[in-house]
Design a protein that fits this description.
Blueprint: H1 6-20, H2 26-36, H3 44-66, H4 91-106, E1 114-116, H5 122-125, E2 140-146, H6 150-160, E3 179-185, E4 197-206, E5 209-217, E6 236-244, E7 253-257, H7 260-271, E8 292-301, E9 304-308, E10 319-323, E11 326-332, H8 336-346
Antiparallel strand pairs: 1-2, 2-5, 3-4, 4-5, 6-7, 6-8, 8-9, 9-10, 10-11
Helix pairs in contact: 1-3, 2-3, 7-8
C-alpha cells in the first residue's frame, strides 16, 4: 500500500477543491480551515480544500435530505362500463310507425294516378311483399288507379325507382306478368326498427288501366328499457358456452368473470345490443353449417341477477332475458362482438 505523503495529500485536496468549488462557500471553508488548526502544518490552501470537501459533502447531504420523496405512481384507472340512457317503453314502435308513414308517402306513382279509399279490385288485396322482418300491424298501404297498361307501368317503375323489374317476369317470358309485385329497400335501418321496404303490387284492369297498391313495411325493435340493461355495479358474470351443430348440445364450458377490465368490456358490449324485432312473423331457423358456439350469460350485482339465454335452439336467434327470476318480454339481437368477448373469457 502506497503511504500518504504530504505532497500526495496536497494534490488530492487541491483537486477536490477545484472539483467542488461550485457547491461550497469558500469563505466558510476558509474559516473552518483556520479554526481547525491541524496538527501538521499544511498550506492554508490545503486546509481550505479539506474544508471544502466537508462543506460540499454537508451541502449535498442537506439538499438530498430536504428533497421530498418521489410521489408514488398512480394506479391505472379502470374505465367504467357504458350504461346508456334507458329507452321509454313504446318509443321504438312510435318511431317505426312514423317511418312507415314517411316511406309510404315517398313511394312514387305515375302522373295522373288517382288514389282510392279501398282496394280497386279484390284480387289486389292478396298481393303484397313482406320481405324481411315485418310487423303487419305497422304496414301502411295506399290504393291507386293508374292510367297506364301494366307493361308501361313496369317500365315506368324501372325508370323511377330502385326496383328490380325482373321480378315481374315469369321464367323465359319476354314481357311482365299481368299481376306482380315490385319492392326495394326504402331507407337505412335503425336501432329502433328493421330495414324499411317499399312495395308496389299491380294488377291489370284494362288495356290502359292498372290498379296498384303501395306498401311500406318494417317491424319495431324491442325497447332497451332500464330492466334490460346491465348496470355499472356488476360484480361478476357467469358464462356458459355450448356448441350447436344440428345434434343435441354437448357438455358446456363454464367460466365466472370478476376481472374489472373484462367486466367493463362485456357489460358495455351487452348494453350496446339492439332489441330484437317485435311482433314480426317468425322466420325459418335451419341447422348451422359446422360447429357454432352460443353463450348464455348471467350478470350479477348486489341483490340482482340478469340472465341472458343463448337464443333459439339450432340457430341461436334472439336472446331472452330473465331479471331476478322473472322472464322479460323483450329479446335482444345476437352480436358477434359480444360472443367474441365471452369466448375469450371462457378461454
Amino acid at each position: 500500500m502506497t503511504p500518504w505523503t504530504d505532497e500526495r495529500l496536497v494534490t488530492l485536496l487541491t483537486d477536490t477543491f477545484a472539483a467542488h468549488e461550485s457547491v461550497a462557500d469558500p469563505a466558510v471553508a476558509q474559516r473552518i480551515a483556520v479554526t481547525a488548526a491541524p496538527r501538521r502544518r499544511w498550506p492554508l490552501t490545503v486546509a481550505v480544500a479539506a474544508a471544502v470537501v466537508l462543506v460540499s459533502g454537508l451541502t449535498v447531504y442537506a439538499v438530498r435530505a430536504t428533497e421530498p420523496p418521489p410521489a408514488p405512481s398512480p394506479a391505472p384507472a379502470i374505465p367504467l362500463p357504458v350504461v346508456p340512457v334507458p329507452i321509454a317503453e313504446g318509443r321504438n314502435r312510435s318511431l317505426a310507425d312514423a317511418e312507415a308513414r314517411h316511406v309510404l308517402a315517398d313511394i312514387p306513382v305515375p302522373p295522373g294516378s288517382t288514389r282510392s279509399g279501398s282496394a280497386p279490385t279484390r284480387e289486389l288485396r292478396r298481393l303484397g311483399a313482406y320481405n324481411g322482418p315485418v310487423d303487419r300491424s305497422l304496414t301502411r298501404t295506399a290504393w291507386w288507379v293508374v292510367p297506364l297498361s301494366y307493361t308501361d307501368l313496369v317500365a315506368w317503375y324501372d325508370a323511377h325507382s330502385p326496383a328490380d323489374v325482373a321480378s315481374t317476369f315469369a321464367p323465359d317470358a319476354s314481357s311482365p306478368a299481368p299481376h306482380a309485385t315490385l319492392d326495394w329497400e326504402a331507407s337505412t335501418p335503425s336501432e329502433a326498427y328493421s330495414q324499411p321496404a317499399a312495395a308496389v303490387s299491380y294488377i291489370r284492369r284494362g288495356p290502359h288501366i292498372t290498379a296498384i297498391r303501395t306498401d311500406a313495411t318494417l317491424a319495431a325493435r324491442y325497447d332497451r328499457t332500464a330492466e334490460t340493461l346491465a348496470p355499472g355495479t356488476v360484480t361478476s358474470i357467469d358464462i356458459t358456452k355450448s356448441a350447436i351443430d344440428g345434434e343435441p348440445r354437448p357438455p358446456s364450458s363454464d367460466a365466472t368473470v370478476t376481472d374489472p377490465t373484462r367486466l367493463t368490456s362485456i357489460v358495455s358490449t351487452f348494453n350496446d345490443l339492439p332489441g330484437a324485432v317485435a311482433n314480426a312473423e317468425p322466420g325459418g331457423c335451419g341447422s348451422p353449417v359446422g360447429i357454432v358456439y352460443v353463450y348464455a350469460v348471467t350478470f350479477r350485482w348486489p341483490g340482482h341477477t340478469l340472465a341472458v339465454d343463448a337464443g333459439a335452439e339450432l340457430c341461436g336467434i334472439g336472446r331472452g332475458l330473465t331479471l331476478d327470476g322473472t322472464e322479460l318480454t323483450p329479446t335482444l339481437e345476437n352480436s358477434e362482438a359480444l360472443d367474441q368477448l365471452l369466448d375469450e373469457a371462457v378461454g
